[in-house]
Amino acid sequence: MNKRKPYYIIIAALCFATIISFFLPYLHLPKQNDVEGDGYKIDTAMAALNSNIIKKVAKESGIPKNIVYNTAKNIINGKDRQTIESRLKENEYYIIDILTEKMNEKVAELDEWGNLEKRTYSYFDMIDLSASVIKYLERDIVSAFLVILTLIMTVVLSYISGFVMLFRKKLTSYKVVKILSLINIFMSFVGILSINAIGIGALQVDKFYKENFGIGFLVIAAMNFVILLIAVIGNLHESWAGIVTFKMIMRQKQLMLMTLPFIVYVVVFYFGPLTGWIMAFQNHKPAAGANQMFVAWDKFIYLLTEKDFLLAFRNTLAMSLINLVFSFIFAIGFALLLNEVVNVKGKKLVQTVSYLPHFLSWIIVAAIVKNVLAVDGGILNELLVNWGFIDAPINFFADGKYFWWIVGLAVVWKETGWNSIIYLASITSINPDLYEAASIDGAGRFKKMIHITLPGIKATIFVLLIINLGMVMNSGFEAQLQLKNDLIKNTAEVIDTYVLNKSFFQGADFSIGTAAGIFKSVISILLVSIANRTAKAFDQERLY
Asked: Of 70, 114, 161, 528, whose CB is crowded by the most CB atoms within 10 A?
């Protein structure tokens, strides 16, 4: 315990040092352009445009939010009524009068409130500023609340960590401090984004400068990083004590050096590009270079409230679940049946034929599927008509109800042979003596499959299920892109095709595409974690 005592002293000192945050500048808004002194001049017209007026009018009128926003923007910019009406449908003209009235009322209200006379540096003044933004500017209420929350929680969590380390003289407290530190760092990052959202929206601060962080934030971030690092070291010290030693590592230094290129590859090509995630919090314009405008959570809010994205999300989940269920059933069933084939040459022939579709491009597979399901001369329609199941050929690509199943069955045909490889490999590891004992007891082939083969590959099934659950948000891209058309767009659009359209065709908004990618990643991580925890709870095989 004496060897570990310095950990407690250092961590407790760092945690209690957060009292400095009450006296140093914390998160604060950067200096406003073209304004003398430390005050802020509020652009009342722009603040009104970014208030909740747009959302209310869009909800009451049923007109898309982007149309209402553009109309309000044209009103603010002084465009004449004829120009504004030219961009609206005739039945939408009435919102011009509504928006003009509401915007004028809001501007008058903000004029009475006045400007901010000084920049805010102190802890409690920042909370007061956030509350003022909620009350008066009505701009990005979520971000304003998040600023208040992060200001309070970063200090509270640090004190909790300090008390934990002082009064719990156990190594298990390292895990608690590690978790609290991670939450604290996350909350601080949320605070940065949120305070910037308030700044650029309500106070028209155009750029994201380093001074957004503030000295207080840098102090707390540095302390929490040290706390986290020490907590990890302490946790690893307990977990690996006697298992992994320095001598053991040195004895395997050749293996360590061999893995180094792969680690570098992963860091450069997998973790390096994650820096691009910052675009999801910007209104990213390639021409602006480093001077991008941060919009905090606006892109995510847009995604979760847009009809097209929600439809794409629904379609992605539906097709992923169909692919997941069909792939597992057909791959496991095919592996079980193929394992029962006695003729070696026949078995190899079937394996080779079943693997081949995997190597075909989706362009070729899509062409085959379209020919099979064609109205004129399609094999399936010809068979159904000739056998009397239908009176006239069906246009499968004109009715959205067929699309999910078309993609699902195409994936099954293409991937079943390939997916069965790992199950066949797992079956070979089952002890042959079990089959011999079952034969002596009178078990047939079917009972052997049910009572020996399936339980024997159960671990493989669970691990692959967890991995595939993490890929639920990747229902495919090429298949949907090649098979969809405008008639079935609402059923065929998935998140990947949605990102393609938004990023390169419909306005070229890279930020929306990045936000959708982050959304997919977060959902995938949650699904894998939940599936892994569930497997652990039922004492089954898991990833970690």
From this structure: 161
Q: Are 299 and 512 in contact (CB under 8 A)?
A: yes
Per-residue pLDDT reduced to its tens digit, 234-290? 666 656 666 666 677 778 888 888 888 998 999 898 888 888 888 888 878 787 776
Per the structure block, which two tokens stand in for 496? 């990947």
Global pTM reads 0.68
Q: Of the candidates 220, 162, 212, 210, which has an alpha carbon nearest to the alpha carbon of residue 186? A: 220
514-542 pLDDT per residue, tens: 999 889 988 988 888 888 888 887 777 77
**What amino acid occupies position 260?**
L
* Residues contacting 8, CB < 8 A, separation 6+: 165, 166, 169
- Kindly state the helix (H) or strand (E) to which residue 132 belongs, with its residue range: helix 123-132
Secondary structure in 3-state letters for 204-251: CCCCCCHHHCHHHHHHHHHHHHHHHHHHHHHHHHHHCCCCCCHHHHHH
Backbone angles phi, psi at 116, to 5 degrees: -85, 125
User: DSSP character for 40?
Assistant: B
327, 503 Cβ separation under 8 angstroms: no
Report CA-CA distances (Å) from 366 to 53, 310, 414, 430, 477: 47, 26, 11, 38, 12
